[in-house]
Structure formats: C-alpha cells, structure tokens
Write a structure and sequence with these properties.
Length: 277
C-alpha cells in the first residue's frame, strides 16, 4: 500500500508538471487567448479535486502542523514546513520554478536549476510576474480548508500526509496565480478599458471590470459536479440517498466561492496595478 500511495503521488505530480508544460506552450504567441486560458483553468480543476480526494485518505494528523514538537533535530518549525522546504529544494534543482506558472511556498534561498531549462514563453509583464501570495494560500489551506474535509485523528503517516498536502497546495497555488495570465490577456484585449483605473490605482474599478458573476457561478457548479462524479464511493445500490463521498462536493464549491475565485481576482488586480510599470 505504501508503494501504491507513493506511485499515486508521483503520477499526480507528473500530471501537474505535464499539464504545466502543455499550458505554458499552449499560451505562447498567437495562441495566447482567453479561450486557451479558460481551457487551462478547467484542466486544473480536475487536479484540485483529485488532490483533495487523495488528502482525504488521511486523518488530520495534527502533529504534522504543530510548531512546538520539534520533530526534526536542528530544524525550528512544524514538520510540514520541513518536508515542503526540502521537496521544493529538490524541485527547484529540477527546474520547477523556472516555469512562470509555478510559485514556491518557501522562495528564500532556493537553489538554481541544475538541468537545461525549458524555453517558456515570457507572456507576463515583468512588473507583475513575481507576484506570490502563497503565504495567504498556505494559511487558508491549513487553517480553514483542511478541517472542512479531513477527519480528526492521527495515523502517524506524516510524510505521506505532507506529500498529499503539498500536491493540494501546489494545485491551488497554480490555479490562483493563473490570475496573472488572465489579467494579461484581458488587458491585451481591452487596454483602453483598463489603463485609466490602472493609472488611477483604482482597485475597486479594476475588480468590477474583472468580475463576471455568471461565469463564476458556472465555475462553482462545474467543480461541485466534478467532485460529485469523481469522489463518489462506488456501491451497487441504485438508491440516490445512499451516496457517500470521499470529499463533500459542497466543500469544493465553497473552496472556489470563498477562496479560489476571490484570491485569483486579487492576483489579477495586483498584476494589473503593476502592468504599466
């Protein structure tokens, strides 16, 4: 079972990387359109739902997040910090953070890539490309989202739990920071609409321009449906009342409603404010 779990995590990581690579290539040059961005965001929904389902296999394992336990000699902080930092160090050496779609949770002192870098298209404006709100995403995930879909308890599988956490965090971070690409294409499509509020630093006007309630409602319904389809416990009963879920679909809809969509728009506004720098 341990080997199977590790294999699943590797596959999820590779899927995320391959989708990343495909998306980075797919939005280059003349193919960089709102439609290509929309397709990329829809693909990312699948990874988010599956990563939440995988994390739900483990109980809370609160010791993993306790900063007072000092489980790693010589390291000050919770065990999850240590595991994520070490994993990001390895991934940085493999070139993960050369990709403009990737944003590390612990960016300080990351080593440079040791492999030949992929030639990613530089579609983002330099002024906004470095936006990173992963501290906010980290806090939201650990303190607000996890208790909504993970059972209480401790099974001691801290390393595997942290690996699942990191896949969730990276999927959420990629989706939310994709707001930089959304903002860029919206600015290119209608610069005359965006330049006045950008120059005036009018964040409220920018937020109004970026908000489409009809689309947001559709996205929330779609991710809830995906969680319903992907996360059902399989049974032979035809009784709809007997449905059981690995992750409650309403939690996924709430995740997008309260955090993913608002934080994405926050990234979009921050990017646009810097777009004319």
């Amino acid at each position: 079972m341990a080997f199977l779990h590790v294999l699943i995590l590797v596959i999820l990581s590779l899927n995320g990387y391959n989708n990343n690579k495909a998306m980075a290539e797919g939005i280059s040059g003349s193919e960089f359109t709102l439609d290509s961005i929309r397709k990329a965001l829809i693909r990312q929904e699948d990874l988010i739902v599956f990563s939440l389902i995988e994390r739900a296999r483990f109980p809370m394992n609160s010791a993993l997040y306790n900063p007072r336990l000092d489980l790693v000699p010589g390291f000050s902080g919770p065990l999850v910090d240590f595991i994520v930092k070490e994993t990001e160090t390895v991934q940085a050496k493999a070139g993960r953070y050369v990709n403009p779609e990737e944003n590390p949770f612990f960016p300080d002192n990351l080593p440079p890539s040791m492999i030949p870098n992929h030639n990613y298209s530089q579609v983002l404006h330099p002024g906004g490309a470095s936006i990173n709100i992963n501290k906010t995403i980290w806090d939201m995930y650990l303190n607000q989202l996890l208790p909504l879909f993970v059972d209480a308890g401790d099974d001691g599988n801290y390393a595997s739990t942290a690996a699942s956490d990191l896949i969730c965090l990276q999927a959420l971070s990629r989706r939310i920071h994709y707001g930089k690409f959304v903002a860029e294409i919206k600015f290119r499509d209608a610069p005359n609409d965006y330049e006045p509020p950008i120059r005036a630093k009018d964040t409220d006007a920018l937020m109004k321009l970026l908000t489409d309630e009809r689309v947001e409602k559709m996205v929330k319904k779609r991710v809830e449906k995906k969680a319903d389809v992907f996360g059902q416990e399989v049974n032979v009963s035809n009784n709809a009342d007997s449905k059981r879920y690995k992750v409650d679909p309403s939690v996924v809809a709430r995740l997008y409603d309260e955090w993913v969509i608002p934080l994405t728009k926050l990234v979009e506004v921050e990017y646009l404010i810097r777009r004319l720098d």
